[in-house]
Amino acid sequence: MTDSAATPAPLTFGWEEWIALPELGLPAISAKVDTGARTSALHASDIEIFGPSSTPMVRFTVHPIPGRDDQAIACSAQVTDRREVTSSNGESELRYVITTPLEVSGQSWPIEITLTNRAGMASRMLLGRQALTDHITIAPTERHLQPVLSYDVYHSKKVRQEAPNRALRIAVLSREDNYSTRRLVEAGAARGHTVEVIDTTRCYMAINALAPEVYYDGQRLPRYDAVVPRIGASITQYGTAVIRQFETIGTYCVNGSAGITASRDKLHAHQVLARHKIGMPMTAFASSPKDTGNLIGLVGGAPLIVKLLESTQGKGVVLAETKKAAESVISAFRGLRANFLVQQFVKEAAGVDVRCLVIGGKVVAAMKRTGAEGDFRSNLHQGGQASVTRISREERDVAVRAARAFGLNMAGVDLLRSSEGPKVLEVNSSPGFEGIEQATGKDLIARLYDEIESHVRPRPVPRRRRD
């Protein structure tokens, strides 16, 4: 980098040169020198404005390798102006203007760039007069007088490792103004991202092969870099349909629709855990009332737990201390035509469970939850108390395996400490952050944003095989 107070070494440009725009994540791009244009132009697609009106941002996509639309670099920058530009063919266009450093031959200086979607142009960038400072001379009959770069960088891990942190546009699918939602918005803004809360039930979808879209209050939703689902249990079916639509579009979703669907249905969830040989309390399910006695026997008899399949926050969970009480509860649930399962009561857990928060395949925090006096349920929503706890290597391994079994990048895995080792009670795809952040004193939302930012970094594009 050249000291701004020093006189930069003179450079000579031909009519085409290799340059880098490092703050946009473009380490190599071939630019055509155009002294007839005042401002440089970058050929970009999916150009969208986001962020506050006082300091608007623009996100856009660049295909740096000619003819390789499969290599897409997502960029973002602050808008510095919007001006009308007349191209060489006489057409006028209103373009957004950004300012970013240009690097050539070890030197760097800021240039203005207009953004335009001109996919038919062979050169991905034009260098105008404003970028050609006084220390540059032009040799119009020559090309590549400066060091030659290579598109090979886009085929290597370097493009991901050296990608700059950019402002992201993130959607939080939530209907509630609670601690977790507010923290997601505030922490995202503090990192320079724009985080928009979207009411899931107000989304609707255009489902077709060519242009699937998600709409909201009469308008097509923009392209988000990431979606954080906070889907309530009462709208699981519709909420996961909206997430599937985002997945179809190609948006990164922190938790996928399949994992949310499986984890919400307790019968399905326990079948997933069993398939992956993950320890859990003995569980049984039957439809016919004739099987009540056998059902109770399968879990070792009373006392036992009866759970509604879609219960949340400890609601719809009943402890039956005797066989007669169990038969009565099961009969009552069947009378309501409710789907439920019967589960072993782990007495030695003594109303205590452990919530492990898993993000990106790692347990980032754990807390012990103790039920209110006289209540076997430890849920904080039912009056339970939370405190920080240390977990064993086995408990950590079980929590990670459980989240991975559902394909969840973020999950609250609830464990019981039994005499036979840790047993998974539940895998929550929309865990709350308030209790566990307060209990542990950790900034866990930051860990989630670390995971999101790592996922939206560009990935190396495979080389094409030559025939």
Automatic annotation (TrEMBL):
- Name the PROSITE patterns on file: ATP_GRASP
User: What lineage is this protein's organism placed in?
Assistant: Bacteria, Pseudomonadati, Pseudomonadota, Alphaproteobacteria, Rhodobacterales
Q: In its UniProt entry, what is this protein called?
A: 30S ribosomal protein S6--L-glutamate ligase
Identify which cofactors the protein needs according to its UniProt entry: Mg(2+); Mn(2+)
Q: What EC designation does it have? A: 6.3.2.-
Alphabetical list of Pfam families matching this protein:
RimK, Rimk_N, Zn_protease
Q: Which UniProt keywords apply?
A: ATP-binding, Ligase, Magnesium, Manganese, Metal-binding, Nucleotide-binding, Protein biosynthesis, Ribonucleoprotein, Ribosomal protein
List the residue ranges forming a coiled coil, or say none. none
What GO molecular function terms would the record report?
Answer: ligase activity
The record's listing under InterPro entries reads: Asp_endopeptidase, ATP-grasp, ATP-grasp_RimK-type, ATP_grasp_subdomain_1, Peptidase_aspartic_dom_sf, Rimk_N, Rp_bS6_RimK/Lys_biosynth_LsyX
Where are the membrane-spanning stretches? none
Gene coding for it: rimK
GO CC aspect terms: ribosome
* Occurrences of domain ATP-grasp (ranges): 270-453
- The species is Pseudodonghicola flavimaris
Q: Which domain of life is it from?
A: Bacteria
